[in-house]
Amino acid sequence: MKKSTLELMKEDELRSFASVVGADVESAEGRDDLISAILDRTNRTITVKAGGMKLDVKASSVTDLRVVELAGRADKGISELTALSKVLLGERQHARLIEHVTDDDGSVDGVLFAFIVGKVIEQVERKN
What we know:
By secondary structure, the protein is mainly alpha-helical. The protein has helices at residues 3-7, 11-21, 31-42, 65-73, 78-100, 110-127, and strands at 45-50, 53-58.
């Protein structure tokens, strides 16, 4: 979420948008407070545990349009799910996940991978 985009919005729009993203703006006084509350809500990191891993996910990544589009196609194949994981978790954590689901013989367990990505999305949505 870009602060500059929020700064272009009217106060009533900010209040409405704050409600959409779940930001607590009950005590907000003015546009600056509203913008801060929205940014705090959307830019926070959510820690989830799935498949024996602890992962940090930026709350806004679940509503990232790329993730939404990829999630809609994830049932079409593993390549979409892999791309979704990279956007959702970032390259570093995605690599950790791949390492986590790789067997001793070097094969990557696609079922476990899909299970963990699904659990991450489920937990982030619940905590969001």
